Amino acid sequence: xxxxxxxxxxxxxxxxxxQSRPLAVETVDLDPPGPGEVLVRIKAAGLCHSDLxxxxxxxxxxxxMVLGHEAAGTVEALGAGVEDxxxxxxxVMVFVPSCGHCLPCAEGRxxxxxxxxxxxxxxxxxxxxxxxxxxxxxxxxxxxxxAFADYVTVSRRxxxxxxxxxxxxxxxxxxxAVLTGVGAVVNTAALKPGQTAAIVGLGGVGLAGLLGAxxxxxxxxxxxxxxxxxxxxxxxxxxxxTVNGRDADAIEQVKAATGGGVDFAFDFxxxxxALETAWRVTRRGGTTVSAGLPNPKLTFPLPAVNLVAEExxxxxxxxxxxxxxxxxxxxxxxxxxxxxxVDKLLTGRLxxxxxxxxxxxxxxxxxxxxxxxxx
Length: 375
Known about the structure:
Layout: E1 2-8, H1 17-20, E2 23-30, E3 37-47, H2 49-55, E4 65-66, E5 70-78, E6 90-93, H3 103-106, H4 114-122, E7 132-134, E8 137-141, E9 151-155, E10 159-162, H5 168-171, H6 177-188, E11 196-200, H7 204-216, E12 220-225, H8 228-237, E13 241-244, H9 250-258, E14 262-267, H10 272-280, E15 282-290, H11 304-309, E16 313-316, H12 324-336, E17 346-350, H13 355-363, E18 369-373
Parallel strand pairs: 4-8, 11-12, 11-14, 12-13, 14-15, 15-16, 17-18
Antiparallel strand pairs: 1-2, 1-4, 2-7, 3-5, 3-9, 3-18, 5-6, 6-10, 7-8
C-alpha cells in the first residue's frame, strides 16, 4: 500500500526548519506486516526532542529515515502469529520493543533489550526488516516506529493496547513523555512520599516527571529551566518552587529552599550543563538521575571524591526504567482518575504538512508537546 510519510534525508540542516525543510512529506510504499508484525493507522504523533536530536545531528541515525516515535493509533491488519490483537484495537507505540528473551528482558529490564537496541541503531524493525520504500530504495524506521506517517508496519512488541475511551492525542503521550518522565521518578529513583525532588529541564518529559513527583507525594518539587513560560506552567502543575537556571545563584536558591539540597534531582534537558546543575543541587547522600540524551561526544566531569565522601549516587534512566506492558496501563489509570493530568502538556496540534514549523517551535523552546493529528 501507499502512505504519506515525513522523510529525513540529511541531518544537520540549519534552523529555521520552515526554510531548510529537513523533513519532506512524500508518498511512500509500505509493505504489509510480516510474521509478528502489525499494520497500524496512526491517529496522533508527538513531536519529541529525541526527533529533533536526529534532525540536528545530536543523535546520529541512518538516513533516509522516517521519523516519529511517540504515537497512538488503531490496528488495521495482523501478520502471521499475532493472535492477541485484533483489527480496531487502540494501541500506543513503544520505541524500545522487548524481545522477551535476552538477559535484560529476562531480568525484567525491557528498556535495555539487546536485540531492540541493535535494531533501533540500524533503523530496522525488531525482525531486522525495513517495510518502507521510496523510488525503489528502502527507508529506515526511527526506533522501530516511524510514526510521522498515515500508516506504519511495526513489531507486535512495539505496541501496548489501551482503553478505547482514551483520546488518541492523549494516548500518544504515554509512549515516550510519560513513560520516560514519570518512570524516571517512580521506577529509577523510586521516590517516596515526603521526599524532595528537583526537575531540571521542563520540556514534555521533564514536566511529565514533575507530574510523577506530584503523584508520588514529593513534599518539595523545585522546577528549574531558563524559559519563564515553562516555569509558570510548572507552578500550575505542582512545583513548590521555581528557579531560572540562568540566575547566577540558581544552585544557592535550591539549597536555601531545601536546607542543603534535594533527595533526588532529575536531568531531563539532555545537556551537560543541566546534568551538572542536577548534580550540584542534590544533597549529601542523595541521588542524581539523568534521563536526557546529550550528544554522545559530550562528557560529564564527575567530581569523584564527592561520590565517596558524600555517598552520592548518579543513575541513568532510559525510557523511565519501565516495563511498558505493566506501566502504561498504570499511568493511564492515574490519568483517568485525575491524578496524572498529562493532557496539560499539550501545547499545539498540527497537520503532517506543517511538521517542519512544529520543530522550529520545539527548537525555540516555545512548545511542550505538539501533536500531529491524522484524519
